[in-house]
Structures are given as C-alpha cells and as structure tokens.
Automatic annotation (TrEMBL):
It comes from Streptomyces griseorubiginosus. SMART domains: AAA. It is an enzyme of class 3 (hydrolase). GO terms for molecular function: ABC-type oligopeptide transporter activity; ATP binding; ATP hydrolysis activity. It holds the Pfam family ABC_membrane. The lineage of its organism: Bacteria, Bacillati, Actinomycetota, Actinomycetes, Kitasatosporales. This is Multidrug ABC transporter ATP-binding protein. GO terms for biological process: oligopeptide export from mitochondrion. The chain crosses the membrane at residues 36-57, 72-97, 152-172, 178-195, 264-285. CDD domains: ABC_6TM_exporter_like (cd18550). One of its GO terms (cellular component) is plasma membrane. Its main location: membrane.
Amino acid sequence: MPRDHIDWTPTPGTSTDQPRQVRRILRLFKPYRARLAVVGLLVGASALVTVATPFLLKETLDVAIPQGRTGLLSLLALGMILSAVLTGVFGVGQTLISTTVGQRVMHDLRTAVYGRLQRMSLAFFTRTRTGEVQSRIANDIGGMQATVTSTATSLVSNLTSVVATIIAMIALDWRLTVVSLLLLPVFVWISRRVGNERKKITTQRQKQMAAMAATVTESLSVSGILLGRTMGRSDSLTRSFADESESLVDLEVRSNMAGRWRMAVIGIVMSAMPAVIYWTAGIALQAGGPDISLGTIVAFVSLQQGLFRPAVSLLSTGVQIQTSLALFQRIFEYLDLPIDITEREDPVHLDRVKGEVRLEGVEFRYDSDDDERAPVLTGIDIDVPAGSSLALVGSTGAGKSTLGYLVPRLYDVTGGRVTLDGVDVRDLDFDTLARAIGVVSQETYLFHATVADNLRFAKPDATDEEIEQAARAAQIHDHIASLPDGYDTVVGERGHRFSGGEKQRLAIARTILRDPPVLILDEATSALDTRTEHAVQEAIDALSANRTTLTIAHRLSTIRDADQIVVLDSGRVAERGTHEELLEQDGRYAALVRRDAQLEPTS
C-alpha cells in the first residue's frame, strides 16, 4: 500500500495568523452567547463566594474565638458551610451549561466540515486519501473536544477567580501580595514557551494520525484485505503500520512531556509560597515592622492557596489553547477549501426535463490554471436529442468518462458549455440536475446496509412495491427473494456479498427507482463475463427505454444499436455516425470493432 499521499495546502486566502484565528474561534460561540452569559454570572458568583471564605476565617481567628463570641462564631461557621454548598451548586450549573454549549459547537463544526466536503468537486476526492478526510472529522475535531467543552469555561472561571483573589489579597495586605506575585511574569513567559512548543508537536502528531488513519482505511477495507492477501503483502503492511504507529508513539510522548519540567517548577514554587509568606510576616514582626494579625496571615495564606489552583490551571489552559489552535487550523483549512462547483444565486429550475443534451465547443482541463499541459477534451460538439442514445468509444485515456461526468456537473467545463434542454448546466439548480441525470458506473458503490436501504437511497419515500418493481425491471428481484432475509439482507462492506453482475443490477434498480430522464452508463458492463453481461444488458435496456442515454462503451457489441456513435481520440472527436456508417468509413471505429471481435471468446 503506498504511503505517500497528497497533503492539502491552504490557499493564499486561508487565514493562519493567530489573532484572526482566535477571533474566528470566538465566532463559533456567538449563537450561544445567552447561555454563556449565564455561565459568566455563575462563574462570577462562585468566585465571590470563594474569596469570601478567607475573610470569614479572619474574623473567626481575630474576633469570634479570642473574644468568646459564640453567636458570631456560629454565624461565621454557617457562612463557611453555605459558601462551600453554593460553590458546589454553581460549579455543577456552569459545567452543565458549558458542556452543552461545547458539544453544540462540536456538532456545528462537524456538520460544517461534512457539508463543505459534500460540496467539493469530484477532483478533490480523486487526489485526497479517504483516511485523511476521516481523520480531520474524527481525530482533529475529537481532539478539540476538551478545549471546546471545558477549556473556554475553565479559562473564564480561573481568570475570574485569580482576579477576585488578587483583589482580596490586596485588601488584606498589599505588601504580602507584592511578595506573592513577584514571580508571576516569569510563570506567564514559561507557559507561553511551553504552549508554542506543544502547538508545533500537535501539528506533526495530527498529520501522523491522519496518515495512519488513511493506511487503516485503505488496507483494512475488503478490497485492501483481498489485495494484501493475494499479493502476499500482509506482513509488509503490518510492518508499515507498526512504523507509523511507532512514529505516533514518539510524538504522543513528546506532546505530553513538552514543558512538563518547567510547569512542574511553577507548581513547586507556588506550593512553597505559603512558607515564604510565613517567613516574611515573621521577619517583619521581629524587625518591628507593621503589626499583622494571625487571622490576616492565615486568611492571606488561604487566599494564596486558593490562588494556586486557578493560577496553575490558567497557565495550563493557555498551553492547551495553543495546542488546540493547531487543531482548529487544520479544521479551518477544510472549511476554507475553495469550492469549484457552485450553484449560482438565481439558478434555473426545470419542473419537467425532456432530456436534450448538447455539448458546444467543450474544452476541459483538470487544472484550469495549467496551460502547459494539453487539455483532456478539446472542441467537442455533440447534439443528443431527447430520448435518443449516444455511445462514446475510444481507447483508454481518450476522455470518455470525463466527457460523461461533465453533463451532471461532476466536473465543470473550462471552455464551451454543456446544456440540458437548452439551459447551460452551470445555470441549473443542483436539484434539477440530480433529478434529471442518473449515472451507473463500472464501480458500483453499495452502503453497508440492507438491500432495501440501498435502493431507497435513490428515493427515500419509495414504497416496498416500488422497490420490488425496480428490482424486477433490473432482473435482480428473483435473486433477492431467494436470500434468507430478502430485501432486509445486509449487502456487506461495499456490497461484497454480491457478485459483480448482481451489484450492477442493484445499481440499475436504484437508478430505475429514481427515474431520471437522462442516463449516463459509464462502462457499466466492462468488467463482467459474457453471460452476466447479457443479464445486466437486459436490465440496462429496460432502464434506457424512452430516456436520453449516454453510454461510455468498452465492449462495442453493447452499443451497435445506438442512434449515434462518437469516437474520441486524445480528447477530440475523431469520427461520428451510426454503427453501419462508421463501418463503411473503415476508420478508427472499424479497427476497434475488429479488435473486439478478436477478443471475443470462440465458444
């Protein structure tokens, strides 16, 4: 399995500068600002209640106990208990709301990325590994979960607690406060260094996770397993996966250990600060300095200890945010992907499509900015009247499939135009195109679901009778009925429980159920044996009746009755006419027919 893959690089317009990225992240929370305001109120109330406790403790030690005031002592003790209860209640409330908001933001991100990818052209998916796409949605967004659901609230909560605690400390004694906060700038500088280091490692880690996910997706699919076993590469694939996993282990360890010693030093220093405060107060008293009461010292140390947890958490949160910025950047890269095929602001909607297809001076390049390479298609002029059939033939690479994919706008022309009932397909709304044009390709895709669910993908509201009629028309009903679970049979991953011909007939039944007036058959029988091809061809004939049909043919025996046959060569129309007319010309088509005859089995 090849390990190299194409990494998508952000376009010049993609924002990667940190301030703009932070503003963009904040906009994700905008729809939930009312709930966040409630969280803010709860955070503020919790901070006020928390810092009130040391003042109650000071009054207890300096007034209630020395003066023997039992009533005041009871009230102060009750106040401390009430403070603990309120802090717990406020904490549960803010956790519930912030987690709900965070999960909604995660949902919005996942949906936005998936929706963006659904709008990408076919060209994007032909050059991007499936595992890479899955990793962005699963690993990158999943990796942001802690940040989105709790870190934002933790940031506000800890910041509020730190500010409220520092104000309370200053109110108790500003001199001790200065001593306590001397090293704060150093701590902030250390945390920023650690954050930048982890951000770089996280970017590398997510790329490695994406590569590993792509390897798993490709090698552990049914097709991947078959290829690996039959080629004797199972051990090689296992070693390759082990190498990628080993690289991930190293990055995970580096990510978790980045700056760990520096953050540990911060924790040690802050834990040792109460001893420094006691020592400072004792030295000041012995030197005849200002009188500091025991209650003030104990209350101050209590505040300082209360400052320790949110301060360290705040510094750690800063590190987490830096790490998460790398994940957000990868998600924003996908959200900023340029969409090649878009629907115009005032698209044309056709309630009824006759099915006339016309290609006028069509030119196509896979990279519209690359003028050095020859175009895939050049100067294509073809008129397909409604209800008629067109066959496209030619050698491999002549541009047949590409031309067929231009009609439903899986690609957009880079020159000329393609029209449906006289309207440029670029001017039609996507709903009209989806209803009007059906595609049956050589590589049939079936979901890992029941037969009925796979057929209903074309028409979700189809009745059981409609499904059975479509299956009968596609000559697959008898086989489905013979299965133990009938239409409730699960087809398996990519339909591997069915043969190639059976899958093709299921695809044809699915298209019959959708009932499009224009049909594109992309070498739908090329991989089948003669007997299976005959059965599938009968199903195709039923499907093609009274429809405009464009057939991309591999075996010429299937298209001899086409109303017109176009021979493509190097992206240009080399010949056109009926089967008999082209044979009389004795040109490229006649040569293809003779080659086909030589390849046909003799018995």
